[in-house]
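Section: Multi-chain targets

For targets with more than one molecule, the full set of components is provided together so that the structure can be written out for the assembly as a whole rather than chain by chain. Components appear in the order listed by the source. The example entry contains two components.
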Amino acid sequence: MSTAVTIRDPGYPTDRENYLTNSSGILSWIFTLDHKRIGMMYLAGVVASFIVGGLLALGIRVHLLRPDGVLFTGPEGNNIYNQVFTLHGAIMVFLFIIPSIPAALGNFLVPIMLGAKDVAFPRLNLSSFYLWCAGAVFFVSALLSSGLDTGWTFYTPYSTTTDTSVILATLGAFILGFSSIFTGLNFIVTINTMRPPGMTWFKMPLFLWATYATSIIQVLATPVLGITLLLLIAERTMHVGIFDPEYNGDPVTYQHFFWFYSHPAVYIMILPAFGVISELISVNSHKHIFGYRFIAYSSIAIALLGFLVWGHHLFTSGMSSLTTIVFSALTFTVSIPSAIKVFNWIATMYKGSISLTTPMCYAISFVFLFTIGGLTGLFLGTLATDLHLHDTYFVVAHFHYVMVGGTLIAFLGGVFHWWPKMVGKMYNDMHGRIAALLVFLGFNLTFLPQFLLGSRGMPRRYATYDPEFAFLHQMSTYGALLLGCGLLYALVVLMISLAKGKRAPANPWGGITLEWTCTSPPPYYNFERPPIVGDPYDFHNVEWDAEGERYVLTEPERKLAPEETPSEQPAHH
Amino acid sequence: MIPALTTMTLALPLLADHHDSFWFPDQASTFAAGVDWVYDMILYISLAFFIPMMAFTAYSIVKYKKKRGERAESQVTHNTPLELAWSIGPSFVLVWMFIQGSISYLDMRTPPEGSYDIGVQSQKWKFIMDYGGGTFHDELHVVKDEPTKLSMRSTDVIHALFIPAFRVKKDIVPGRYNYLWFQATIASEKVSDEELAKAKKQSEGGGTWDYDKYQFTPDGYRFYDLYCAEYCGTDHSEMQTAVVVHETQAELDEWIKANSSRGDVSMVQWGETLFNRRGCAGCHSIDGTKDGFTGPSFKDVYGSSHAMVSGEELLADDNYIRESILDPKAQVVAGYSPVMPTFKGQLSDDDIASIIEFLKTLSVNGEAADDAEAADAETSSTETTPAS
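Its structure, encoded as tokens over all components, is:
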């Protein structure tokens, strides 16, 4: 580094500044309005939910090791299996995936990426976290009372006639919906009104674009879920006659209502992941993101088109041919914006300077896995093949490639990417990468065989199965165990870093977005004054400082122009 | 059935016999080849995208992996023509997929005039095929090369009928009829008489026939799987049956005739057959087990008194059982819900009498009741139907 350049590096925070230590005691967390602390509480909550949901998943897989079932046997065996897969789905969807990136990472990052001190409505933000907790309590109480065996979709009339705790669970989902709406509303207002000087819409980091698109869906679609669940409760308790054919209702109406929310909800799950991956790939390739505008617009396109495709969950339900064909056509349109993003990420890596850090390993697995998830969606959007594949393991494999191979991998990548920023500690990168590899291998071993199971005719949600499917099920189970080990390994790597990790510099990866310009961890006020920003992906002025093991932002030597001082002083001086 | 698939054929798909493709079960209907062709084309198109994309990614990672601090070779921000090309280009392929899929779909949607019609009644956790004329059976029997239409209804929750070998699936939604049609192309083989006799001997006294174990039906036919594909509760995974394709209509008619009425088997045996075939076994145990069953157990039920939901105490005699079959919600045993569907018009008097005879054999009171009945008949003072 030449001496002519000045470097900008915020150094390290003092204990008084550090948001983790500036106040202490349990109450300072419970009543905090700091978006970073709320984000960390969300992170702890969603990870705990993920562990519960993950253990249930392992239960499912171990049970399916043999055609007659291994784990849940006896006369109640099938019932227990049904409750286990229902809770696995419900916990993973409502308590983990939907809040994972938007609420945990989003809360931490959105204000900092905007150079703001907090979100627009800090109290609303805290209340959204407590709504999440309340929803979780309802789910746990459903589990503890008489369980839940409807599948996470609560299809009628099964859900109106089963004697399990449907009402508790749907109330839980209803409350979680409000948590989601509050977060979305908060981010929309924050991003609209609190951008710093110089940050026009097209100078926003792509993570913010993705969060913005997600928030639009959360605010517009979630109320429909709320209405649907309330109607379901009304049908169950008062027999209002909307969903249950016994009272002149129509079960397919429920499916329309439900998927009108739940298909956009798929994009609530995956859009923030796209945002994370855009950041990870650009930063770790040390190269400007390729096709910024196409990526930004495609997020919005997905958010809007996502509202028009819900009918593809009902291709076999007996809708009219015309409706079915129209929904198939609309479904294909939504695949284009996702494809655009993948092409752009791959192009970003080309001619970059790639650092294979742990987050980058997750980003690369994301590209691989999400592409499979997206392409296998084509088989399901095509009507002829969907009739065969609908409600088989092919569908299970497809959405796990999108939800786990996509969202979970991006979430892990994001957590590893921003971990030094969140806790101020570096983890062991080599062990992080080994964990990422185990997760990648375990995941593929779990779900690749399931495509084959599905196309060979294995229906989903089966507690027992025909012996000819045993071999593929066994492969899948061994894969799930490997995946579980990989995830545990990743968790251990992060936990060890808390105790033994080196102090993290402000900018360990070489990012340009604003969060890397404040200390690790950030001070409780984030920024003293709104920073002035330029292009978030312009890597010309970032340098590796080998001595400090950190990246620093440089400012080129500034010269006065003209260089010579005039020989005569102006008269008025 | 996917002919006795073993794990070996799955592990070595290329060595498996020629009926077996890697991805699919047998192609046993006129739809199968078309669906598989569309599937294969999408697969090849997907691979044509996936492999170059991943190869390019791998190349970039290997080629451009650099030490920290080294500069990227390029800081290009975008290339609009290239991006437009890869946005619009794939759309044409998608349009092709959409059109191919929709054409096949419309074929699969519209049953031809004059298809052979079979009724399907589904309930937790059983399909009951209605061959007309009071003949019901839980196996689906159809004729080769004959368009067959299933008119399907459900008496409780949503089910779905799925025959992988035919590549057809349709939800069965309560409160409406859903239809599905296909034309089978491969007749089911029949196993040798010795093999059948051996299996029959083995399964004697073992209760229901184990399709998975023998891989042929009790009549000795190889079969295709028929699954319920829409989650419907506890025994969803056991809601399966067999599809048998007969060579000729005559062969099917003969099979229907053989299953239409009791024939020359004993009433008790016929009652047990109906108990298994018509779905009673799904909700009522015969050994006193209560866990996991929706309805009361049939063990010792005949001739004993039970408290009803209405508060009355009723004796489960012939008339009560008859009423419970024809109008199940009239008197429900306390502690149970009124969820049983009616069998009115679906069982003949002989069928009902056979079931009652079968229930007697399950009860300690059965023998005594027979004697009492005989005595009653003599004095012609039969009990009246319990008030409902």
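The first helix of chain B runs from residue 7 to 11.
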